[in-house]
Each structure stands twice: as structure tokens, then as C-alpha cells.
Design goal:
By secondary structure, the protein is an alpha/beta fold. The protein has two domains: 3-174, TolB, N-terminal domain (Rossmann fold, 3-Layer(aba) Sandwich), CATH 3.40.50.10070; 182-218, no CATH class. Helix content is 41%, strand content 18%. The protein has seven helices and six strands; from the N terminus they run αββαβααβββααα. A hairpin with a 5-residue loop joins β5 (113-122) and β6 (128-137).
């Protein structure tokens, strides 16, 4: 079989698989390269990459190419993923796979401080869509939670609050403040009662807003005795 025919068959197989995974929902197709390991072994880096990919799938925001499918297609093309760390190389892999976006990056360890750098970019234009960087200093068990948070952020979503709480307890530097609750508008009945009380009390104060309050009145001026 010619290489052109082989490429056509592989493309048909690949896109058929994506259709079965729900690409018709309008989700972006994404593939992830093995992250570069800096200060850790490549096997450790590959394990952490697997966790990142799994959590990206859990976000349900994208269509992720499975690693075995990706390796099968690249092997058929005679392309070796090992050593592919540059943006140009990642874009070439993305073009071979027929995906819209690629994710690449690195995991690092310096002393007892871990670093995670991830970047998602467009295969077509090469432009960076989103990048996420985290520095974590703490127990290695919580490193996986850091990576899970990165997975949510790299697809443009906020990580679940329980994961953020774990990181806040493990490393205050990674603490993310909880969103403030919106103040509820004052009920009409309450506003009417307050307005009536103020008007009939002769004060003449009424502030119409969702943050209703009555300011403290100043002390009356002292009239000098004649």
C-alpha cells in the first residue's frame, strides 16, 4: 500500500474515532505530547503527563486523542515522539494527527520545589491559546492535585473547589480565594417598611439599592448660649 493511501486510511480511522467520542458537540480536538522532565526522570514525567491528560478528559471540555491511538498513527508515519519538545515539532505532530490544538510543556524539580509549565497552542496558526505555570513546594502526594488543577486551567476552566482547597492547605502560595457570594437584592416588603419608617420618622433618608443601608446621623451642632 502506498504512503498516501495509508495516510488516507489512518485519517478515516482517526476521525471516525473522534466522531464516536462526540466531536460533533463542537468541542476542540486536542493531543498532548510527553512533557519534558527537568530534574526528574522521563518515566516520572510520562506518568505525570498521563495524569494531566486524564484530568483534561475529565473536564469534558475537549476531545482528547488517546495515547495509544496517537502512538499508532505516529508510528505508521515513522515519527518518533521522543525528543519532540519544541513548538515546531509539536505543531508537526498535531498536523499529522489532524487535531486543532496541541499541549506541550515540562515538569521540573529544583531542590524540593516542583514546577509545572503547560502551553496549549493552535496547530494551524502556531499561536499560543493558553499557558499555565505553577510552582509547588510541599508533599509530593499533592503534586498530582496541582497537575489536576493545571488540567482544568489549560482548557480554560476553573478547577473544582475541593482541589483548590487541598492546595490551599498544602501550600499557601497556591491558595486561590473563593469567589465572593453575590449580595441578594433586598425584598420589596423590607424596602417598603424601611422607607415608611424613615419617612414617618421625619429623617427623609431613603437609599434605593441592593446594598441598602442607613448612615449614622451626625450629632446636632451645639447652639451657644446667648
Amino acid at each position: 500500500m502506498s504512503k498516501i493511501a495509508s495516510n488516507i486510511l489512518l485519517s478515516i480511522f482517526f476521525f471516525s474515532t473522534l466522531m464516536g467520542q462526540g466531536v460533533t458537540d463542537g468541542k476542540t480536538t486536542v493531543a498532548i505530547l510527553d512533557f519534558e522532565g527537568r530534574g526528574i526522570s522521563q518515566m516520572e514525567s510520562a506518568t505525570l503527563t498521563d495524569r494531566l491528560q486524564s484530568e483534561m478528559v475529565n473536564t469534558n471540555a475537549i476531545i482528547m486523542v488517546e495515547r495509544n491511538q496517537m502512538e499508532e498513527i505516529l508510528n505508521e508515519q515513522g515519527f518518533q515522539q521522543s525528543g519532540c519538545t519544541s513548538a515546531e515539532c509539536a505543531a508537526e505532530v498535531g498536523a499529522l494527527l489532524g487535531v486543532q490544538n496541541m499541549v506541550s510543556g515540562s515538569f521540573g524539580l529544583l531542590g524540593n520545589t516542583y514546577t509545572i509549565d503547560a502551553k496549549m497552542f493552535s496547530v494551524e496558526t502556531g499561536a499560543t491559546i493558553r499557558s499555565v505555570s505553577k510552582t509547588y513546594k510541599g508533599d509530593v502526594d499533592n503534586l498530582l492535585t496541582v497537575i489536576e488543577v493545571v488540567a482544568w486551567e489549560i482548557v480554560g476552566l476553573k478547577a473544582p473547589q475541593d482541589k483548590l482547597d487541598i492546595l490551599a492547605a498544602a501550600d499557601p502560595a497556591l491558595k486561590v480565594s473563593k469567589p465572593k457570594k453575590e449580595r441578594q437584592p433586598m425584598k420589596k416588603s423590607t424596602r417598603r417598611l424601611l422607607m415608611a419608617a424613615v419617612l414617618f420618622g421625619g429623617g427623609g433618608y431613603y437609599l434605593y439599592s441592593t446594598d441598602f443601608f442607613l448612615p449614622e446621623l451626625p450629632e446636632p451642632p451645639q447652639v451657644p448660649e446667648g
